[in-house]
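hiii so um. not sure if this is the right channel but i have a protein structure encoded as tokens and i wanna go backwards to a sequence. like what aa goes where. can anyone help
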């Protein structure tokens, strides 16, 4: 296993090249063969790896170039989800707008894994780099996005039954990764940070008949049961939603810090969104057990405006007044393209921000 902590990390997705998105459309129309598409997909992964390496990151991934979204391992490789436009969630912008947007799917059948996505991701990337690799997987509770009182209850009376089936899908992916030699897996759990915002809790969970307190109880237990593979270190990433620059919730971690930070006992690393005032202060870091690493997501992937090295180092110092400096690290706040479209930021700004993460981390922890 590569020796932790990694001081400079990406979170997950990188912007997908326009030519890759176009190639996916052409393949679906029958204008491009699967073999031809795979060659282009491989090229996109090669470029994602090269980008992260030249930015000086300590650990990298494949940029999630083979996925339609960060949820790929749950929605692209399973049966049980059908097309719908009726299931929406309230996405917000910094301008104050609220848009009811659908991810286009609902759970209408038992969730069954058909194939592995992460096996291809890891095996290909491992052969292309000597830099330590991590693989990102979504929390099975992200299936709340696809549970509907109207469309799902014929097969899932309780949304936690859906989450349990999703957990088995993710567990199989973890087993596959462990067999292939992956030693760092990150679980993305935006649903936990929705709980910090009373309005978001009501709109996203209460309105859909999902008890938020069960997320902090049964949900944390479910996440712990996932993180059970010998020789693998697990990271838990929290953000407040990341969809083409939009977000779901706002507020500090105070109300969930004890339950999540102390309850996620099998996760050695917490990767926390901290890029702007919506994330609150660093005081909740006092709840983090001293055997963990905290990766501060200080660099925004939502906005093209560049942070400065001095700003980042000042914020790291502020965080260190609540958690030991030697157990801190630096990352972007989230991925650059959690969905197929990506955030409103260009490839030059993406590279500049990743390079900043690498440079500041080298200065802060020489």
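sure thing!! here u go:
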């Amino acid at each position: 296993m590569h020796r932790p902590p990694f001081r400079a990390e990406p979170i997950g997705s990188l912007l997908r090249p326009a030519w890759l998105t176009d190639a996916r459309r052409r393949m679906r129309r029958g204008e491009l063969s699967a073999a031809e598409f795979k060659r282009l997909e491989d090229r996109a992964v090669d470029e994602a790896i090269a980008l992260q390496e030249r930015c000086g990151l300590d650990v990298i991934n494949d940029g999630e170039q083979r996925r339609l979204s960060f949820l790929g391992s749950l929605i692209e490789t399973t049966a049980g989800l059908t097309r719908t436009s009726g299931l929406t969630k309230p996405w917000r912008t910094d301008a104050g707008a609220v848009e009811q947007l659908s991810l286009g799917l609902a759970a209408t059948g038992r969730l069954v894994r058909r194939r592995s996505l992460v096996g291809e991701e890891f095996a290909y990337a491992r052969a292309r780099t000597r830099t330590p690799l991590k693989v990102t997987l979504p929390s099975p509770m992200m299936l709340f996005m696809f549970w509907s009182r109207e469309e799902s209850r014929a097969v899932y009376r309780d949304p936690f039954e859906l989450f349990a089936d999703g957990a088995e899908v993710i567990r199989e992916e973890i087993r596959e990764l462990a067999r292939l030699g992956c030693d760092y897996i990150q679980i993305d759990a935006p649903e936990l940070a929705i709980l910090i915002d009373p309005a978001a809790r009501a709109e996203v969970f209460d309105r859909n008949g999902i008890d938020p307190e069960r997320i902090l109880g049964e949900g944390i237990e479910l996440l712990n049961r996932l993180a059970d593979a010998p020789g693998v270190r697990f990271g838990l990433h929290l953000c407040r939603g990341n969809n083409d620059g939009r977000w779901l919730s706002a507020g500090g971690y105070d109300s969930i810090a004890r339950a999540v930070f102390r309850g996620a006992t099998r996760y050695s690393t917490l990767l926390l969104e901290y890029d702007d005032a919506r994330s609150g202060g660093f005081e909740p870091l006092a709840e983090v057990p001293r055997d963990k690493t905290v990766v501060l997501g200080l660099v925004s992937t939502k906005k093209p405006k560049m942070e400065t090295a001095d700003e980042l180092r000042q914020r790291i110092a502020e965080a260190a007044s609540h958690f030991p400096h030697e157990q801190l690290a630096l990352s972007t706040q989230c991925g650059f393209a959690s969905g197929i479209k990506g955030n409103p930021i260009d490839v030059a700004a993406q590279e500049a921000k990743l390079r900043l993460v690498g440079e500041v981390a080298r200065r802060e922890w020489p």
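oh and The chain has eleven helices and eleven strands.
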